[in-house]
Amino acid sequence: MYDDSNPAIERLREICLALPAVFEKEAWGECTFRVTGGSMFAMTDNNHHSSGHVAVWVKAPAMVQEILVGSDPKRFFVPPYMGKQGWVGVRIDYRVKWDQLAAILKDGFLMSAPKKSRGRAPAGLAVAASTGSTPKRSSKPARRKKSPGIRQKT
After folding, report:
1. How many CB atoms lie within 10 A of CB 1?
2. H helices within the chain, ranges in order?
3. CA–CA gap between residue 69 and residue 124 (Å, rounded)
4. What is each CA distance from 101 to 36, 98, 150, 153, in whole angstroms?
5. Within a 10 A sphere around the Cβ of 8, how many other Cβ atoms?
6. Angstrom distance (rounded) from CA 65 to CA 84
7. How many angstroms separate the CA atoms of 47 and 78, rounded?
8. Is 29 helix (H, G, I), strand (E, B) or coil?
9. Which of 9, 22, 38, 144 has its CB 3.0 to 4.6 Å from that of 112, i.e. a possible disulfide?
10. What is the average pLDDT across 52-80?
11. Is the pLDDT reported for residue 100 higher than 70?
12. CA 13 to CA 7: how far, in whole Å?
């Protein structure tokens, strides 16, 4: 079971619940974060099956797991059960980079959210307010569509 008073779990919860239509549900003795009309995108790992750490497992786009685990195997790992589907484990009890974790969580959210919810994801999440830092943009800005019948200079 997770410890509700753990500051890292509280901070994780703030970030996840700042996303639109996200709710928390306890499952398997852990906190899980899900999108209404979508699916689960994150789950805590509070020494789950004697893992020896407090972490979060996050749904991740293709190749992200391999890149993160290869870059810092003490902070990132392949979680049991979900790892074979590309999920990545992120320790939240060891050198946490909250801006980076918020970006990873946002990517997981976008993969799990129904299409109509994806455009409503806030750019900065809760991490900016709680740390005072400016979050980094995790994706390119959307291109403007050309209006039919109006020619734009190139």
Report:
1. 12
2. 7-17, 64-71, 98-112, 115-118, 127-131
3. 24
4. 21, 5, 42, 40
5. 20
6. 10
7. 15
8. coil
9. 38
10. 94
11. yes
12. 10
The crossing angle, in degrees rounded to 10, of helices 64-71 and 98-112 is 160
Radius of gyration of the chain measured on its C-alpha atoms: 17
Distance between CA atoms of residues 58 and 14, nearest Å: 15
CA torsion 80-109-16-103 (nearest 10°) is: 90
Residue 48 in tokens: 């789950």
In terms of Cα–Cα distance, which of 26, 32, 33, 75 is closest to 53?
75
Beta bridge partners of 26: 31
Mean pLDDT to the nearest integer, 70-80: 95
Q: What would the pLDDT profile of 113-144 be if each residue is shown by its tens digit?
A: 887 655 555 554 444 334 433 333 233 333 33
Q: Please, are residues 41 and 108 in contact by the beta-carbon 8 Å criterion?
A: yes
